[in-house]
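Narrative of activities, Objective 1.

The group set out to show that a structural description can be obtained from nothing but a protein's sequence at a throughput compatible with the screening campaign. Below is one input-output pair from the validation batch, recorded exactly as produced.
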Amino acid sequence: MPQSITRTTSRLARETRGQEIAEAALVLPIVFMVMLGIFWFGQAFRIYGTITHAAREGARAAVAPLCATCGVPLNPPTLAQNAVNALQNALLAAKLDPAQPKKYPVTRPALFLCTTGAAAPCDGTQLTQAGVCVQNNVQLSGTNSTGLAGCGVSVTFQYPYQFWLPFTSLNNQRIFVPAQARMKMESQ
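Output recorded for this entry:
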């Protein structure tokens, strides 16, 4: 009897039928998880690119020194509202919810006013209503042709993103993707 068991065991050990199915059963879940990871990290990267573009559009709208139709300088609250409107339009164009920055407002970046050197405040109405920090007339780190730092506008906000990667520590984790843009004010 022991010889027949040994013979049967050795014959089964040499058998290769069904080996591919067993290997596929081991490898496919790993490949599936890698593909899910690529998809979700790709989505996060797409959102990062979109909100960065939206912040640039907001900053670009805020540095417009003159009303295009009236030729009158705009006041800072109007500039901040222009920035938020442009930002929200860019988010809508990319099919992102423009109300999300309002739910998760950002903290004020440490920038300084060009005129006094004091800490630059966020436009209060835009921070509370839209979750976006618009800072007007702030010192920028770059230099202009005279060697002095330029003055401009900073637009900062954050957008939430939730991963879905089962069996990982990132499953259902919400991260906040920051976006910031600064534009130099040009005199005309």
